[in-house]
Write a structure and sequence with these properties.
It is built from four helices and no strands. It is mainly α. Helix 1 runs antiparallel to helix 3. The protein starts with a helix and ends with a helix.
């Protein structure tokens, strides 16, 4: 398990908690959904073709 998988789950939990407590607009204003999507992307990709490290080598 990589480090980003728990990050993804934590951000999804934060998104759902904020949605229940404050309404759907609050987590979207704080970009929680974008952060959880980015963490999920990093957790599932094996290779990063557009990373700085890949481009510089």
């Amino acid at each position: 398990m990589q480090l980003t998988e728990p990050d993804f789950l934590l951000l999804v939990f934060a998104f759902l908690s904020m949605s229940i407590a404050l309404g759907i607009k609050a987590p979207l204003d704080y970009s929680v959904w974008v952060g959880s999507a980015a963490a999920f992307l990093l957790a599932t990709l094996d290779k990063f073709p557009l990373s700085i490290d890949e481009l510089s080598s």
